[in-house]
Amino acid sequence: ENYLAEQGCADAEVLLHIGAYTPKKGSEANDLEKTTGNISSTMALLETKWGALKKIVFISTVDVYGSYDGVIDENSPTIPDTLYGWSKLYGEQMIKNFCQQNALDCEILRLGHVYGRGEEVYRKAMPVMIDNALHGNDIQIFGDGKAIRTFIHVNDVVNAIVNAVELDGFNLINVVGNEETTINELAEKIVKFSGA
């Protein structure tokens, strides 16, 4: 509980809670042990003896909305489909309550579909399609391909996190792209740009 304090972090004014278990593929989203680790690691951070803390920025996910049918905004119902989504929603509530009890500013950023460098370790639509196209394999689409995504580049996510440090009070913000793309449209773009 005092590990971070012993490492010289007790005087930190801002805590960026970015580290968490994130499933690399859909089948890992209900891993009980790993998803529960998101809750216990958040608890460990909150048990640290912070001496000068003024703000917490918590990185969450749009997975807290589950399979919501319609345009999602910060007021949409949160009904996760997976233990991962539930672990992040529970973490949000832990952070919010802790900040309220200790008069701290609180920023919760719900990240959407992030793409960019390092994404290839995830078995998600975009990196899988790119890998298949580059290796001359067919691009597989599950379902009808009409599912809509609003991809956001990792650099834009980093900028959002940095900007969140400057905000005051409590803010809940969806960090997503601003251009809707269906999975079918994404596949078409990848085929076109890869020359496949």
Class from secondary-structure proportions = alpha/beta
What is the topology, as strand order, of the major beta sheet? 1-2-3-7
Query: How many DSSP H or I helices?
Result: 6
Largest sheet: 4 strands, parallel
- Unreliable stretches covering 5 or more consecutive residues: none
Describe the protein:
With 196 residues, the protein is of the alpha/beta class. The protein contains six helices and eight strands, in the order H-E-H-E-H-E-E-H-E-E-H-E-E-H. It has helices at residues 3-9, 32-47, 83-101, 125-134, 154-165, 183-194; strands at 14-17, 55-61, 105-111, 114-115, 148-149, 152-153, 170-175, 181-182. The strands form three sheets. Strands 1-2-3-7 form a four-stranded parallel sheet, sandwiched between helices. Strand 1 (14-17), helix 2 (32-47) and strand 2 form a beta-alpha-beta unit. Helix 2 runs parallel beside helix 3 (83-101). It is elongated. The model has no long low-confidence stretch (mean pLDDT 89).
Features:
39% helix; two-stranded parallel ribbon; 196 residues; alpha/beta; four-stranded parallel β-sheet; single chain; 8 strands
In short:
39% of the residues lie in helices and 16% in strands.
